[in-house]
Amino acid sequence: xxxxxxxxxxxxxxxxxxxxxxxxxxxxxxxxxxxxxxxxxxxxxxxxxxxxxxxxxxxxxxxxxxxxxxxxxxxxxxxxxxxxxxxxxxxxxxxxxxxxxxxxxxxxxxxxxxxxxxxxxxxxxxxxxxxxxxxxxxxxxxxxxxxxxxxxxxxxxxxxxxxxxxxxxxxxxxxxxxxxxxxxxxxxxxxxxxxxxxxxxxxxxxxxxxxxxxxxxxxxxxxxxxxxxxxxxxxx
Length: 236
Fold this sequence. Notes:
Layout: H1 7-54, E1 72-73, E2 79-80, H2 90-99, H3 113-121, H4 123-135, E3 146-151, E4 158-162, E5 181-188, H5 202-211, E6 215-219, E7 223-226
Parallel strand pairs: 5-6
Antiparallel strand pairs: 1-2, 3-4, 3-5, 6-7
């Protein structure tokens, strides 16, 4: 009959319209996430320029022959390793770590910031963060390290579980999160003056969104918190 439409075609067209709408929504969400990432990156550039000026290659160094010869110096007797020594003492790493425990610059405000900061400073988690940071070779070529942060809901005790795969110079493969995971942690050990990006990458943000868990990230600039909000503790 003229003007008659096959019901099958109507269903096909409705399905195609729904798929198009879903694809457009997904593309919109990707663009929003990319814009947020670009905005955070722009906010970081000023801090990075300040950091680079502070540790400029033209900065004065201690003369050869001194115990700290060749290291950065402020001219007042203090020093800081230029490109570091893989055998840097644990005490030196601990001092470096204490200076970086504050949240890094350029990140958006979060209402769970205090809770995530408390997790990072928990003695059990802090020890594992220090181990991962030292193992990342932050004064050398660098290799990302990380782990899952889990919580015993009955006792509230925090503990860690290893990622599925070890990291490389600029990537890490966490795998599927364990059922008791409440967050993830990994390092960005490459120095900004050598091209390292201190904050979470777009891939980091996307992975956190997929798992539904917040991420903690340690870099030379500080500690970054990103991704979904921390889930409230379940009742035992």
